[in-house]
């Protein structure tokens, strides 16, 4: 095979950790405490859900790390599922990344970036007379059109940056992540140290609530927490560009996720100490407000609101960039096997999958026009936990299929930890259908479009290979 069709292994452990954290810390750390407070009406339960979300995320990350250490390759779970299950299931995963999981994540992050920019420099209203126009009463493409167009512009610009090569994209993520850490450190230090941070009052009887906290309410709140934790598995998509991937991917995932869990607990404790639950409920109901901005505004005024808005701009810029960087590698891997649009298998002079980046860019921009932030994120979490469960189940399957294979990392707490993760994924799947039926339905429909697309791509692959039509394709 021509050397120009091969990805270069240029990422060491430090950049692996940067990509892991950069794919996680985005909009959720600033925005999701408000819907969680509205759902639970208790600061204590909000923090409990952040802790539970962190524990479950760690369980999933540890399980994923064993599979990644054993099967590391470009495409992440797409490459793993071919060996654990079959080609068809691997394709459905890759197609789900393209239609729902990663492209909607890019859209959501870019949308929050544009919202934050709008709060600093109000954008001119565009086509306001069409704001109420809807498609089926579900999609409102012209609502907040100036914000959406700004989000689209960001996606296009960052796609161009990543066409210049993975080192360029990862270098930008490193610089942004350092700024994000500094900004979050300032929030926690001055927020908890401020005289208005009445931790005692706001957390008195912290787990009490005006209404009973139900099982479904906890799961609904955890959908928000999981959006904030979402993204850690994306490092697997660039497995073919990581030095000593079988060791560095498990180590990078574990270090990165644990770091994020600690950061999230500190920063959300800060928000809850500054704002009572009643205020956070109002923030959620307003729809166009961000909890972090209101928390910092409460003691720093307008200057604090500008500071946190700029920090959100920087954070969502970094996370959008990291997500764009990692996600397109799966479509590249699929195209090389004839299971995606053929041009996605091509690399440019910088050894970047430029056509794959373009396809991703176009669909992500369309998703920006299709939905609201919370609608997109709930849809993502519903879809992604199906595959988190499948990867974790793979730990058991691979232990049976490949009992003597060298494993650079073995999941801590086996078999209890992966078993808990699988049960939780199943519970979240069914609970989301009950409490968020619209988001679950949209996500499922987009995922199931992969069935006819698998047939179509296989048909085209047979035609290119001149395989007789009556010959079956092995899956």
Automatic annotation (TrEMBL):
Gene Ontology MF terms: L-amino acid transmembrane transporter activity
User: What protein name is recorded for this chain?
Assistant: Amino acid permease
> Could you give one GO CC term from the UniProt record?
membrane
Q: How does this chain sit within the bilayer?
A: Multi-pass membrane protein
Keyword vocabulary terms for this entry = Membrane, Transmembrane, Transmembrane helix
Q: Which residues cross the membrane?
A: 12-30, 42-62, 88-113, 170-193, 213-240, 252-279, 299-326, 379-399, 411-434, 440-457
Main localization of the protein?
membrane
